[in-house]
Amino acid sequence: MKKVLQIAGAYIGIVVGAGFASGQEILQFFTSFGWISILGTLVATVLFSFLGMKILQLGSRLQTQSHKHVIDLICGKALGRVVDLFITFFLFGVAAIMIAGSGSIFQQQFGINPLYGSMIMTLLTIITVCFNFQKMISVISLMTPFLFIIIGIVAVYSFVQYGGSGELFQLGKTENTAASNWVVSAVLYVSYNIAAGSAVLALIGGAENSERKASLGGLLGGIGLGVLLLLINAAMLVNFKEIQSADMPIVYIANEISPVIGYSMSFILLAMIYNTTVGMIYAFTARIVPSQKKSFKPSVILVTIAAFLASFVGFVKLVSTLYPIIGYLGMILIVSVIIASFRFKGKQISENEAKSMS
Q: Which residue ranges does UniProt annotate as crossing the membrane (predicted)?
């Protein structure tokens, strides 16, 4: 059970990232639709659980050391090459976004020059990824319980303070929504998170010999993501007037409770960004250079420095440019995973068989 919880924690840590933990993405994809967004979080929970379970299971079945084999199996050889190319590119892009986001948090919450904040994140990422992947899974899952605790405190405080106002069910859709429909918005939210995280999930699955443990880890991780999503969304619904113009809504609410909670939330947010950066850099480098080769660690250093340089484009601009594209790519991946789950149900597939079948 310990291994299952580790995998679930790693899944949560990889997907959460900057926008999830800060609440900004959830504000646009869910909260801005009003009370109906609660149903949207349930749709997202089901998708996170199913997709995480299947991708981790296939990774374990293939014992893959690169996400390419899983993508080829799910999408087929022709489409798989295109999807693999885009995912590999976005791994690097998301890493740059996370590094830029860390600089923004250091500046906003601690008054530290964003350049120094991004440099700290870059150095920590290089040090962590140069360990083996099993150790990295433990590092990634380490902060997850603290995230649940701090989000739980924020949610409880919000309901006690504002939950009786009766405004929750009066709140209608605003103009600040990511899509025209709450269902499409929920699916789009899951799709870009899965597109960005699928490569790392495949590697986590490949590091686990037991398909059952990998699948259960994906299921529990998806449920955990759904719980976090529901808590954050609910907390923002009852604080909607106060947080709708905030860059980091959850941090804003945490600071309203007390400075201690606010700083704690900021540290948790940085930890989640760190988790995501480590996962993206590892998966991107492993796709280009196998992790067993001596050139892997030098490649990690070069790739991470390149992501640091790319982060100078700016956090907001990177998010607004890359995330919508990743979302539509993710929809292709979601459909392919669903089809693959029926095609290969009950089959034991070796890596060689997967290559020939694709």
A: 33-53, 82-103, 115-133, 140-162, 182-204, 216-240, 260-284, 296-316, 322-342
pLDDT tens sequence across 176-213: 676 778 898 899 889 888 887 787 788 888 888 888 89
pLDDT tens-digit series, residues 210-248? 888 999 999 999 999 999 999 999 888 888 877 777 777
* Closest of 45, 127, 103, 74 to residue 354, by C-alpha: 74
Q: 2-357, which class in CATH? A: mainly alpha
Q: Are 289 and 104 in contact (CB under 8 A)?
A: no
Task: For tokens 């009766």, name the residue.
Answer: 166
Helices (H), the chain: 2-22, 24-29, 37-62, 67-75, 77-110, 114-129, 133-142, 144-162, 182-206, 211-237, 240-243, 249-257, 259-288, 296-310, 315-343, 351-357
Residue from 296, 282, 86 nearest 192 by CA: 86
How far lies 217's CA from each of 158, 195, 213, in Å?
30, 18, 6
* Residue 296 burial (CB count, 10 A): 17
Task: Using alpha carbons, select from 230, 213, 212, 198 the residue that is nearest to residue 35.
Answer: 230
Give the span between the Cα atoms of 293 and 290, in whole angstroms.
6
Query: Domain-by-domain residue ranges, the chain?
Result: 2-357
